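Appendix B, example 12.
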Amino acid sequence: MVPTIQPDQELIAVGEGAFAVPQAHRSAVLEGLGEAERGECVSDEEIAARWKKCGVKRL
């Protein structure tokens, strides 16, 4: 199912799916997708440390 696209949105394909992205968020979404494709991500330990620093309890 393809979502309805509003004038200020663009359709972004990810794998076999797609979703509408507001134009204001497009560059950040594309940057994040590029980082993921290049394997540029933080470790689980780094995420846990950030959560702890911010007072977020692990699920």
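The CA atoms of residues 27 and 38 lie 17 Å apart. Strands lie at 9-14, 17-22.
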